[in-house]
Predict the structure of NUDIX hydrolase.
Amino acid sequence: MEAKHCLLCGQVMIERDVDGTMRRACPDCTYVHWGNYSVGVGALVKKEGKLLLVRRAQNPGKGYWTNPGGYIEQLEPIGETVCREVLEETGVRATVRSVVAIRDLPRAIHNLYIAFAMDYVEGEPVADGLEVDAAGFFSLEEMETMNVAPFTRWLADVAAGDESGEGLQIDTDPVVPLNGLGLFRLQTK
Ligand SMILES: [Zn+2]
């Protein structure tokens, strides 16, 4: 599917050379259709060595156990999105510690998934009954007999090895003023 009309002004789009590549672009304003992308965020919330998982009640992935998460919203910082998804799906409050894994899935809609190590704050897992129909904390051993989605199993391995608390952490005090940006970086001692 090619973009026919400009998303900003509604003009019929044309093919235009943008820095050496032909792209769908608007002849009247600055809009360029760069491609189709989506970004997902996922939460790795650990409590006493066990990982928070939910069982998907809807497709895609109905019946599979996964970590909580969802797609980002246009104007919501990703750290807030992942906290909100955990709370909505399970009733558990958790805060972002660091970014610990990324999955790249280049396809018709190019998907990027960012996994966050989260610090458990409070709440017993209760499924929302809509997106997910079960929720709980599970060890790697318990996961062996559960229908865990393969990618979630990979993330569980990431979470299991993350005892250091390292990864890309929120930079609340950047060395130069960068107002309005969400910044995640390696901490340098
Ligand atoms: Zn336009």
Notes: The chain has three helices and twelve strands. Helices lie at 78-90, 140-143, 150-160. The chain has a mean pLDDT of 94.
